[in-house]
Amino acid sequence: MDDLDALEARSIFILREAYRRIRPLGMLWSIGKDSTALLWLARKAFIGRIPFPVSLLDTGMEFPEVYAFRDELIAAWGLDYRNAECPPESSVDQTLPPGGRAAARKTEGLKLLIARERWRGVILGIRRDEQATRAKDRIFSPRAADGSWNFADQPPEFWDYYQTDVPDGAHLRVHPLLHWTEIDIWRYHKRENIPFCSLYLARDGYRFRSLGEKNITVPVRSQAASLDEIIAELASTSAPERAGRTMDHESEDAFERLRSGGYM
Amino acid sequence: MKTFAVVFTGHVDHGKSTLVARLLLDTGYFTDGKLAELEAAAQRRGVPLEISFLLDSFQVERDQAVTIDATRIWFSSATRRYAIIDAPGHREFVRHMVSGAADALAAVVVVDAVEGIGEQTRRHALLLPLVGVTRAIVAINKMDAIGFDAARYARIVADVRAVFGQTGLELVAAVPTVARDGDNVVTRSARIPWYDGPTLLGALEALDERAALHAPVRFPVHDVYRRDDERILVGNLDGGRVEAGMTLVFSPTRDSARVTRIVRFPESGLPALAGEAFGFTLDQPIFIGPGDVASDERDVPHVADALDATIFWLDRAPLEIGEHVRMRCGTRDVTAVVDRIGGVIDIETFYERPASSLLRNDIAQVTLRGLQPFVVDPHPAQLSRFALYRGDAVGGGGIVRTIVAERATRRRSSPDVASLVAPGVSAADRSRRYGHRGIVVWLTGLPSAGKSTLAARAAAALFADGWFAYVLDGDTLRSGLSGDLGFSAADRIENARRVGEVAALFADAGCIALVAVVSPLREGRALARAAATEAFVEVFVKADLATCELRDTKGLYRRARERDVAAFTGISADYEEPLAPDLVIDTTRSDVAASTVALLERIRSVARAF
After folding, report:
1. Are residues B24 and B132 both part of a single domain?
2. Looking at the structure, do residues B14 and B29 belong to the same domain, yes or no?
3. Does B73 touch chain A if contact means CB atoms closer than 8 Å?
4. Cβ B133 vs Cβ B105: under 8 Å
5. Largest CA distance in chain A
6. Across B228-299, where does the E strand assignment appear?
């Protein structure tokens, strides 16, 4: 077993544990590299057939390439896809900066989705190394009925034992990729030959390292036009992954506040 | 390149976060953005840049200047990749330390050179081996504050060695450091010339990755999936190797069967190795479900009724002697009674003091007795590590030390009854005919909580789907089977026991036996569970007294208030809520339709898992 095998085995256990103990259960699929790798892991865990619905929190502002890639994969993998339209931008606090408004729309969209589908558990592809507040999250992370996160009093998790139930109205966020890093994800993509959106590859000297809405995500300078080149680039870079995501940088604790309020 | 996980622990304010931050800084970890972000934040606040701000990333932590929760950061040396697990030092947060340390292969313990060993240093030294971390490097930090005194350093190291010796933690290296300035963290200190050992990074690099022990085959069955008429047992292999053609023994029943195929997606076939998540099919349709453990014929796990364990308790509410908890070991849940608390370990003296309950953060030796058989291996095997659940919450955890009572293993369904009733027809044959296994679904709750309604609706829905289901209703059984019993505590327990025995026979016959009885006492329900030879699902149908009284479907509350009914549960007799029900349905919050769906979902998931 190498390190990717160990990461994979743990994620599969978490997915199966979620499916065994939490119903109804659904998964968020942002169409990005992480949640697409997670979809692939779910296919492995459930031997080819993902037994729960998957949803995109759709602001209508994704890149056209993202929507096209989504539709291809829904057909190819036979996904039970349920689009989750986020409330319009006019419905959120207009004093927020643009990134904050997009995040607020998604936070609301997720609340609506969970209410509509009556999900008790929702699987997400966040990772500890992405961002400092995500580093502190649990694999099975309880959220209150209003989506808020009580990070000062989280349930203990040790070995592979988790708290897998919450009071009615509340829900669990399940994070099977929490222990992966960005470079692990790409190495896994390469090893498993998992499809990914072409925007991650460099074109004319730029590529997207992290994919968000088109109005608030900027590409980074890069010559990496293949998976091998992306992996080589990540091994040598010292720039943070979410540098191109403007919502994180609008204030010192922007992301922390987003997450306490229910953002992914 | 494999990741080497290291947990950093230390008494509060001994400089742990600063040490980690210095390690990261000097190995070139900090990204351009992160450092700039922090510098800007410090400037805004008008304070000097604290490197530990990077780790203590939450606003609330920066404000209080403490670390709240275990966090993880990765960095690479020239030779390998490390995952640093930063665990908080506050007494309050020991539970998070346990979470952080459970993944680590070694620990770095930070000790303040001025203050020496702190209470938390001792506690961590005790906890680390308990969560499987057996090696530690000690950084004696803030050496500048004691004038780089070699003699004082040596005394602290001796103290540390003594404490570690008592807890079974191996001291692999001690390093004198000044984390703030970087002395002996990554670069050798010119200010401590008398020290000729490795730097902290050097000591980390010298740790070998212990090869996975040659472990026997242990496959805790996680779930059973049906694909194209095949039953696939899925799980993660804890030890050994599994391949097609091999005979596996399943515990606790000790039934055996041969592996016909290793199943994976997208490709199947190759043998499976320790650590892997996979599935397999068997040549015989024996009853295997989640929680059973597959092993090699020659080396099977213990099947036990009682065991001694070292446990740590994390819940705010104390754990009492005699309390029922759910013990999860591997994927198996067993309702366990805390039979004995042998002693709480005092972290100052390491003596064990007697206690009748465990408080939050206590560590103790206990005896656990299972109402169903435990399937375990003694420490240090993987299957010695367990969690204790109270309700749905993780209340604590521990390690199996010794087996107190081995169970004489027998088959799950009693062969003499089976041969009398239906010679030659096995439970497997019945399951094949009905398309599901027989189980007992025990609905308990106050009168008018909704038990009979739910049972009847679920039975009707199952029947419509072609299932074999039947309702055993408390009122009906009271008039016949238990016609000789009254409503004293002893009679209520006896009533539950009888109904349990009857339900067990229904389940053995392949039926979904839906039992709707108040069964107010835990002891009665435990007897019913013990009678079951097939799966037993305890469902707590929850509704508060006021609601039940308002519903009063049978007019009994009114009569009880008028003292017309003796010892009426909820009014003049106690109802003991289940401590660890398999399912809770709150009928004051969800309507009949939603409650029925929740019940059906659980029944289907248990009964289809064969």
Report:
1. yes
2. yes
3. yes
4. yes
5. 51
6. 230-236, 241-242, 247-251, 255-263, 272-273, 277-282, 293-296
Is B575 in CB contact (< 8 Å) with chain A? no
Question: How would residue B604 be classed by pLDDT, with cut points 50, 70 and 90?
Answer: confident
Q: How many angstroms separate the CA atoms of A248 and A240, rounded? A: 11
Q: For residues B364 and B320, what is the distance between their CA atoms, to the nearest angstrom?
A: 12
Question: Is CATH 3.30.1380.20 the classification given to domain A3-181+250-260?
Answer: no
Six-digit token pair at A243?
A: 């540098």
pLDDT at position B49, please? 61
Same domain, B23 and B97: yes
Domains identified in chain B, total number: 4
Do residues B32 and B80 share a domain? yes
* Residue B62's pLDDT band (cuts 50, 70, 90): very low
- Least Cα distance to A35 among A61, A7, A4, A70 occurs for A70
Give the H or E element holding residue A101. helix A98-117
Please check whether residue B198 is in contact with residue B175, taking contact to mean a CB–CB distance below 8 angstroms.
yes
Range of the domain at B192: 3-206
In angstroms, the CA B348 to CA B313 distance is 18
- B248 with B391, same domain: the answer is no
Question: How many angstroms away from the CA of B127 is the closest CA of chain A?
Answer: 12
**Least Cα separation, residue A74 to chain B (angstroms):** 17
Q: Which two tokens stand for residue B289?
A: 């479900």
Cα–Cα dist B230/A16, whole Å: 18
pLDDT tens per residue, range B112-126: 999 999 887 888 888
For residue range B66-99, list pLDDT tens digits in order. 444 445 677 778 788 888 877 655 554 455 566 6
Residue B457: pLDDT over 60: yes
Least CB-CB distance to B275: which of A1, A19, A135?
A1
Q: Would the CB atoms of B222 and A17 count as touching at under 8 Å? A: yes
- φ, ψ of residue A86 in degrees (nearest 5): -85, 155
Q: Which chain B residue shows the shortest CA-CA distance from A17?
A: B222
Q: Which two tokens stand for residue B28?
A: 């070139």
Question: Touching check for A159 and chain B: CB below 8 Å?
Answer: yes
Q: Does A19 touch chain B (CB under 8 A)?
A: yes
Cα distance from A112 to chain B (closest Cα, Å)? 19
Neighbours of B442 (CB within 10 A): 29
Instruction: Quote the CA–CA distance of A119 and B188 in Å, as a whole number.
Output: 55
DSSP letter at B293 equals E
Q: Based on the fold, state whether residues B103 and B59 are members of the same structural domain.
A: yes
Q: Which amino acid is at A216?
A: I
Amino acid B343: pLDDT: 86
- Single out the residue of B570, B602, B564 nearest to residue B585, CA to CA: B602
In chain A, what residues touch B70 (CB-CB under 8 Å)? 136
And the tokens for B93?
């947060």
Q: Tokens representing A91?
A: 């419905």
Both B440 and B420 in one domain: the answer is yes
In this prediction, residue B422 carries a pLDDT of 42
Residue type, B86: D
pLDDT > 90: percent of chain B = 44
For chain A, helix, strand, coil in percent to 5 are 45, 10, 45
Q: Which residue of A has its CA nearest to B238?
A: A9
Cross-chain CB nearest to A44 (options B74, B265, B590): B265
Distances (CA, A) of B424 to A30, B254, B415, B420, B428: 55, 20, 10, 10, 11
H or E stretch including B287? Answer: none
Burial class (CB in 10 A: 0-12, 13-18, 19+), B399: buried
Give the pLDDT confidence of B324-344 residue by residue, as tens digits.
999 999 999 999 999 999 888
Please state the ipTM of this predicted complex.
0.94
If you ran DSSP here, which 8-state letter would residue B231 be given? E
